[in-house]
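Q: What does the predicted 3D structure of DHA2 family efflux MFS transporter permease subunit look like?
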Amino acid sequence: MENSVKPIDRPPWGILAILMIGAFISMLNETLLNVALPSIMKDLEVTASTVQWLSTGYMLVNGVMIPATAFLIQKYTARRLFLTAMSLFLIGTILAGFATSFPVLLVARMIQASGSAIMMPLLMNVMLTSFPPEKRGAAMGLFGLVFIFAPAVGPTLSGWLIEHFDWRMLFHFVTPIAAIVLVIAIFLLKDKKKDVEIRLDFLSFLLSSIGFGGLLYGLSSAGNKGWDSQQVYITIIVGAIALVLFIWRQLKLEVPMLNFRIYKYPMFTLSSAISIVITMAMFSAMLLLPIYVQSIRGISPIKSGLLMLPGSILMGIMSPITGKLFDKYGGRLLAIIGLSITIITSYFLSTLTLHTTYTELILIYSARMFGMSMVMMPVMTNGLNQLPAHQYPHGTAMNSTLQQVSGAIGSALLVTIMSNRTKTHATDLAASAMKHLTGKPTPEAMAEMKQQIAMKAMLEGINDSFLVSVGIASIALILAFFIKRVKPAGNPHGGTADKKVVTKLAEN
């Protein structure tokens, strides 16, 4: 779709502020439950592989919905999209706050996610079209406060609430904030754009839902059912076939739902690959560490949350700084340094013991988050900068889709690895213990031995998962050496983008 080029008067800070607050609380909910998972497991009597669906399912719905956001951003006004998204998010939050069973809670989380899916691509698109290229790094640094700081601070807030209240308070806390944001948006959010008459290709939407959903469901189910289960490998195969058909259809459509032609821009392709890998590593740690801290070490939820607070603050401080550094030095140097730190700290997390000190955990986790803060937004911005302006909705939708799906798949995969390796270690440890057992132990001694074996087996399973994340982050580091600084592609009418002018989407 062709778009007009208009000079910038000044960025629409009022609209951006409302969108940022809405996006902040929606992203906050992505990790808000992580610290609460052990409490929910106990209260609703579900396993670790089942309860992780509260996080994985949330990201899955985001991944299924986000491919349609490029279409939605072009068709509807920012006001209409935001009000719809915030309403869905509020309904899901209220329902989750009163859930008394796991299925109801899971459905509520998915309703929340259907609203959240729209907010982040919408905010990113408005940011891209509101700032000239030479100021975009700093602007995206502000965006990074939402993208990085919100999910990072979630565990800290969650830990404090769980320590003092029931886990349902996590949703009761967010409900009034979401309601206030919705009311403010109704009265203050304005948009001059008119709706555009374009249609969504429902076959594409169906194929993307089956594709992403099948892959994630199969990977998540492997933790409970095993990799040799028919249900696991059939859903993965069906998901993979649907995803291939979805991509093929997008390349054939004149107006695709998700435009894969943007991958002809090499830096965007590279940034997508790095973002996928680093997101898998980041979200997996946010699930695995609370399980280690609470289930193995017996550390309280509030201390579990506080453990992650310094890293959250560090990411929040670094986000605008890395944006300015990106404007000055580009993305490659930042990505290489950040990924090197991520790999080293991930390795330390793969050597956890029953006696790793609380201080060590804080230092390692904070350093890891510091490293990631130097990678995410600079790499993403560098890739988007190469796209022509009329491709921004597709670029932001593609990035958001891949990040949500990769975060969900990464979490599901590494939790599955943890579960399977825990079973293997438990079997080996039990066999070793029985081999060295002398005499007939008392029931109390046998129960204590089983508990110790279970704890040690879970610890080794978590260590194995973190070791896999070291390999995942290493792939991203190799790719980072190929990053090149790019200038924005020519505008849709031809020519080079002027530094005093930003290509502004007619739809926004």
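A (community wiki): The structure tokens above were generated from the sequence. Residues 1-8, 491-508 have pLDDT under 50 and may be disordered. The beta strands are 6-7, 501-502.
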